[in-house]
Design a protein that fits this description.
single chain, 95 residues, mainly alpha, 87% helix
Length: 95
């Protein structure tokens, strides 16, 4: 993805530089394969950090929410049944 952004940015900076293939050829001619790997380390570090954070957070929340779900579901069902019973009782008293 970072390499696609490199080509896209180069096309935006030099709009008269031609299409996609001409930009790729120009980058290859100027710096070779290194042009496409420059700045790869910061991107990989960001991706690894993001993956570890989101993965760890997912498993942490999954574990905690799976324990909390039965309590939340019971509270929801109790609230719904009691509110329906209250509505029925009010309707019976008014009619």
């Amino acid at each position: 993805m970072a390499r696609a952004n490199l080509v896209k940015s180069h096309m935006q900076v030099h709009p008269d530089g031609g299409g996609l293939l001409s930009v790729v050829r120009q980058l290859w001619a100027e710096a070779g394969a290194a042009a496409f790997y420059r700045g790869l380390s910061p991107c990989l570090l960001r991706w690894v950090g993001e993956a570890n954070t989101s993965g760890g957070l997912y498993y942490y929340l999954k574990r905690d929410l799976s324990r909390a779900f039965p309590t939340a579901a019971a509270s929801f069902v109790t609230f719904e049944y009691s509110s329906e019973a209250l509505k029925r009782r009010i309707m019976q008293q008014t009619s």
